[in-house]
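Retro notes
What went well: the complex prediction finally ran end to end.
Inputs used:
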Amino acid sequence: MKKKISATAKTAPVTRRGFLKGAAAGAAAGAATLADRGVQAEPSPAAPPAAPPPTRTQLARETALPPPTRAVDAYLVERPGSDHMTDVLRALDIEYCASNCGSSFEGLQESIVNHGGNRRPEFLTCLHEETAVGMAHGYAKVAGKPMMALLHGTVGIQHASMAIYNAYCDRVPVYLVAGLDYDGPVAAHNATDLAALVREFVKWDGQPASLGEFGPSAVRAYHVATTPPMAPALLVVDAKLQKDPADGDPGLPPVSPPRFPSADAGSVREIARMLVEADSPLITAGLAARTQAGIDLLVELAELLQAPVDGGGARLNFPSRHPLAGNGTGRPDLVLNLEPAGRGGPRVPAGPGMRTITISSAEFLVSRNFSIYEAGPGAADLLVAADAQATLPALIEEVRKLVTADRRRLFEERGAATAAAHAERRRRDVRSARHGWDASPVSLARIAAELWPLIKDEDWSFSSPQGFIGGWPGRLWDMKRSYHALGAQGGGGIGYSLPASVGAALANRGHGRITVNINGDGDLNYAPGALWTAVHHRIPLLTVVHNNRAYHQEVMYLQQQAAARNRGVDRAAIGTTITDPNIDYAQMAKAYGMYAEGPIERPADLAPALRRGVERVKAGEPALIDVVSQPR
Amino acid sequence: MTTGTRDRPHVAAGLAGLLLAAAATGSVTGPGATAAGAQDPAALEGDAANGERLFTDYTCYGCHGYTGETGRGPRLNPPRLRQAQFIAYLRNPPNPRQMPPYRQDDVSDQKLADIYAYLVSLPSASPEAEDIPVLRDILQEAEGSAPLPADPR
């Protein structure tokens, strides 16, 4: 009997309408069978007298479904439009859809989980839209392709807006889809122009007017988001398009990503000539390396020129222990800025005798309202609007043509001096980690140093920013793969580390890679629900809480203000600290179902706790270790 | 100070910034600086316990850490200025954007003397790097890195 049912299901898929009809018939048949056999529960001796059993007619009246009516036929939908949308998303190879559920996209959500079988994309349950987009942000930095974040009308978009802005500033693609339901239960969730809420910091938005337009719009959004300068793109999808039956087969649109914009040949030749002629060039990289290929290309250029590379802190652009890493010796006479990342990126102040070249795709990313790209390395003598990574192959070849034997000798001397400076700085960095080693609260250097032996022989990824933790991972760890340091928020919006780390860990999971997140306590409190998402979806991630019980940067700023005004220097803690009561982050994580330890206060307790956390992560689950830490 | 977790507000740019600026200019460790033991006979008598409280209230720890050994600011543990130098430095730090000045009408000499006494009382929580196995290993990794690769072409 079972075999027969299976065979039928394989050859003739059960439609929703057919399933309901079958279920009604089955229920009626089941009820009749039970009544015919006279099956009833044996009354307990202690129980009160049972009511007389229902008659066959009564049973049928109570359990059988009414026969299908015209109203039901009108209600049921075959081949809803959102099935086609799901097919298009799969054609775009979108693996995941992170979302906090909402009625404006219930049609699409149903298609993803039923029509698509909850695979490509798989629905990820998030407890806040900022988490959904933050996860997509971190995921893209590892996976090299966008995750979908599905948002609910005006409210979902506005909840997500900070995370969208971060991704925009960080030049990371996020595939945003928002539901819009004019017939929905809450009018305030709709807008005449929904995308206007975030239009200034998404690269493109579209609202297909028909199901036939959905595919081309979806492909357009994908191409725009994943072409440098990469950034989020937003597709607004009317609920009616999702729910109405498809009128014919719209077909899948062709997916043919454009090539990336590299600099023109004349500019490449000019830059190469300036680099070869310079006596002490410096290369700075903000958001230059999008992938491992970008790091490898930058290494090739640097070694060809024997020029130092300041990789900045926005993401890993250059191996941390490469002998040419750093600022070299002395003042440069030429600075080549590759994709400056604003104030967070490397900056060399201009001065007499120093020329600057900037290659930046941000010139193509124009916002009428935000000035995030005006705070880079300053005006350049030669500004080239192009993608740096896409330009590097041609630039390397051009430099190679121009290098003479004389220049090569000079380059080698320069390289040796740069390597010596690098080695000296690295020794100094490692030695300085000893300061406060045995102090309580625990020093940040010790947190990074104790983590290193636990991960260095594994495939690992560091997912959180380093600005608030003294840059210790970059100073102590051997970072050389693109996923070894995923960098910062982009827009400086706090609340990024945890969601982005969960997303990054999801992308790393498929590679069996350990993901480590050193998460500030202030940051953690923005979207702690991401802890639950990590547990729910079995995403292995080690979160170490840098628990200094403050928004510490603001503590210092407020203290400076008070001192500048010569008053109240003992009041900088007001409004800037997170004490009274102290927050127990281990208990918080446990409430979300996560393995957790802490607060760790004694430095001697740190390494064993971290080891247990790493073991949990290696076993495939997330873990959190709360460490009460020095402020910086 | 090397034991016990601080369960208190964090604020610290003052002393922290002061020492940070001092380190940048070399003034804290420059000529004339002496160990804390060699004090001017006219030095104020400091109350280390009160100094610990002030170190927290003025958020000195913010830039110098709770033991005066970590953070973005210069190391305060052990202090390398005499008390009078220390007080003068806090009144007029060379770079007030890094080390905020603490003026007489808000912070008395006695309070600064108390902070100084606290710093003098602090034991070191900073063993040598060679005595810390984890750091020793990282140092060896660094020394063992491959030499600068030559251009293969």
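What we learned: Confidence is low (pLDDT under 50) at residues 1-37, 146-153 of chain B.
What to try next: split runs per interface for comparison.
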